[in-house]
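Recap quiz, item 2
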Amino acid sequence: MSDVPLLEAEGVSHTYAGGQVGCADVGFSLYPGEVLGIVGESGSGKSTLLSCLSGALPPSRGRVRFAVRGQGMQDVFQLSEPDRRLLMRTDWGIVHQNPRDGLRMSVSAGGNVGERLMAVGARHYGDIRSEALDWLGRVEIDAERVDHLPRTFSGGMQQRTQIARILVSQPRLVFMDEPTGGLDVSVQARLLDLLRGLVRDLGVAAVVVTHDLAVVRLLSDRLMVMRQGRVVESGLTDQVLDDPQHPYSQLLVSSVLQA
Amino acid sequence: MTQELMLQVQDLSKTFTLHTQGGATLPVFDGVNLTVGAGQSIALAGASGAGKSTLLRSLCANYRPSSGQVLVRHRDAMVDLTGAEPRLQLEIRRETIGYVSQFLRVIPRIPAEEIVAEAAVAGGMDDAEALNAARALLQRLNLPERLWSVPPATFSGGEQQRVNIARGLIRSFPILLLDEPTASLDAENRKVAVALIMEAKAKGAAIVAICHDETVRAEIADAVFDVSAFQAAA
Amino acid sequence: MNALQPAGSGAQFHSIDGVYNFAYLDEQTKRMIRRALLKAVAIPGYQVPFGGREMPVAYGWGTGGMQVTASILGLDDVLKVIDQGADDTTNAVSIRRFFNRTAGVPVTEATTEATVIQTRHRIPEKTLREDQIIVYQVPMPEPLRKLEPRETETRKMHAFAEYGLMQVKLYEDISRHGEITTTYDYPVEVNARYMMAPSPIPKFDNPKMHAMPALQLFGAGREKRIYAIPPYTKVRSLDFNDYPFEPQQFDAPCALCDAKGVFLDEVILDDKGDHMFVCSDSDHCRDRRAEGHMGPRAREAAEKGYGADQ
């Protein structure tokens, strides 16, 4: 068990121009292999927080630090832009809610998955292609679709292609924004199983933002509940869901229909 | 003869506050003190609603106590479970405390043998070994082989419980928490379950169990702890 | 009026008819362009923005190349202008006449005699020398434009050397067609740093750019960018290790002069589908025919008793 956290948030706050509070004073440490769930309803600030954590939006206050390979804990927003861009392409991955935001729709599935390899200097077509095929297989996409455009894929397949595209660079940290949003229930289920298996097998740490409690129950070890920009409760997932302390957490848990 | 102290509950209290019910409070227990040593097993007793399940869940950080402490022997030192950082709590659950719940919380679409094998893999066994161990254990628990590759959602209560037991006992946890482990089992399977529990006990596990069945309780427990004696004032 | 004045005296150099400044552009503009050229030479392959001027031809007709040529021409230069390898197409003729009128410099069709060669879409077959400068006309200077339409992004990609996207494009070609299908304006890596669009020269010409003794300058008028490859600079065409770059091969020699290993143009001869392949570089072909080489068509014509020049 490593003693060094992978990702550390300290007092992360973001206020939009105009005064609207996105998120306020969020702090936590994430260790290798841990999955942190962040739940909240619309307007809770969870998406803003995810943007700050994933290097897309500089926080108004506070900092986000990541254990950069060979450099120790670095403030993500103090890194030079090329270093940060490289980080986001290799050691990090972001699974977007809408696969269109995370895929090149006019590039084949194989090209999408191989891009991260080519971006860091892979120059052997055959090797790139076979690695792309390997990863598409791991996300249960048929090998014969490797040259097809994601445009022709179903929503679930697009999402799985997005996941393969990220995992090919073997990131240590993956951010997921409503990974099952907009998918049919059975498709959601399959995707969650896949994510659960991959996270477990690869030892990837993850931050999963969602409004769906079933997703965090299945995927995450730890949970933070957000409301109006603030974290109102945090702890182990089963503890927060089975024995919620904060009034809002109790409301959230009791609102979920049990199938 | 002194057994190594494994679990120490100090002055533990639990009151639920139901904010969705206008802040109504539900006191459960107050000032619970309990120690369990290696190889020792304690049965929790008390009427329904006395807080047996609540106490058991507090011992693995599933429920958060209102006050008091739970100390566990983790990696050769007594560690405060209740106040620990989530990372440490996860580590303790991974290595030290095993929990067999009353009902199998079904993870959909995972076959029975994989559910059990996953628990072994989490303890460091490699995939192939874990699957073999899982099958052996399910065999011992008389779960029909045709059910091994089937997800347990459609199983009977007894079949589900056997998967649950296998998952909880496939590894040798130093501390075992059992919530009605034999409740849905017939006589024959009950015997197997008891044998497994006794084997764990013999290996030095400290066991805290909830058992309604007097016979089973007599077989596995060294002592009985009456939770209702610590009933909190309403 | 044609007398040379020393630099810095404030006098203008006039054109032959006394109306335009020497080589059309005013001296300050030439200085601005030369500064851009120096910067471009200092950073091989990097696109330098410059304040492009209105030229008396429309965008798309070589205004970028013309501005570069205008800025470097001196009285002792000899100018050659080619378009798709030929000196006698409309475009080449117009531009040559333009500089003849506004600069009065000698013009030539012989590659070996020229000191400045302005070209559209071809590199001459003869190896250029250290004392020569070749000026390319460039329509689209940004090699990544078709893949990434945002200028803000492509600038960052060049700044951070993030060229994976181009490699993805080549990957897509191979996965779809079994080979890299780009045949002209084939992207190159200059001095192991910047990715560059060599202008729509056929990929056949790409190897000539590598370690060329002459200075190579590129001008894009509409996009207002200048870039350069200094002499003897490493230029590598992008490829995969297992799908290496291959210039085009022709399976027959020039029909007129029998040249092998040169770029050929297809010429339609009649409306019944008769065609022949001849040197794209008209100067090169003429020289070879003057030396007595005869390609299959030329031999045929000679046997039938036609004149040596078709």
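Chain A touches chain C at residues 81-82, 85, 104, 107-108, 110-111, 114-116, 118-120, 122-126, 128-129, 146-147 (CB under 8 Å).
Chain A is about 40% helix and 25% strand.
End of item.
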